[in-house]
Amino acid sequence: MPRKRVAVVLAVAASASLSLISPAQATHSWNNYHWARTASAFTLPVGNQLAAGADWHGHLATSVADWSSSTTLKLSAAPSTSTKRCSMVKGTVQVCASSYGRNGWLGLASISVSGGHITQGSAKMNDTYFSMATYNNPNEKLHVMCQEIGHTFGLGHTSEDGSSQNTCMDYFSNTGPHAASTVSTHPNAHDFEQIATMYAHLDASTTVAATPTSSARNEVGVERSTWGQEVERGEHGEFSIFVREFGYGEKVITHVTWA
Prior knowledge:
Layout: E1 7-10, E2 34-35, E3 42-48, H1 56-67, E4 73-80, E5 89-90, E6 93-98, E7 107-114, E8 117-126, H2 127-130, H3 138-152, H4 189-198, E9 213-214, E10 229-233, E11 239-247, E12 250-257
Parallel strand pairs: 1-7, 2-8, 3-4, 3-6, 6-8
Antiparallel strand pairs: 1-12, 5-9, 7-8, 10-11, 11-12
Helix pairs in contact: 1-3
């Protein structure tokens, strides 16, 4: 399996057992985690915590517009607060990029889940690596940004063998000989079909925030020491899964893809 850029942190506040955690299937829904909402179409706020002047702003704007092509899910961009910590905010997805250090991970996408419903999310890009020549190109950054956001509303990967399905949810790498390639930098029709399937039913309540409020519960840091116990490692060491127990049936499940 080729090297991949993105680390996915699934912050799960739920009583689901580890036996329910599995790689994305052909449908590429991530364990059927989804936001609760009372209408067939909904808008999810995306908070911009990117540093002023960073080129990630353009990639975020493109990804927000791309995912909003869905007839089910729209994304709305919130003002920038430029916060390195990238704390999650209940009812929203928060997006950040900063130099988090040579700690081995390239990106972290986090979702808190309760009762099968996503309640908050965040996506972090590690500029310590993205400032290096290997990763520092617009196609690789757009692929990562698009995929991280896709994870936060319940999408998994379409494949993990390095091939391109021309979706940002695949494991194609826009680096090296493919640095100039624009494939796999946007969602495709299958992604939108999957979203429609995931959100085909209605819920009795909503976890999408009309008025976002800060939430410090079940935060996941950028340090490995905050991820809990490693319970699984990929065949070639390309990824790991960590679990951190919070008690009362709440836990953080961390999926990391290493540089």
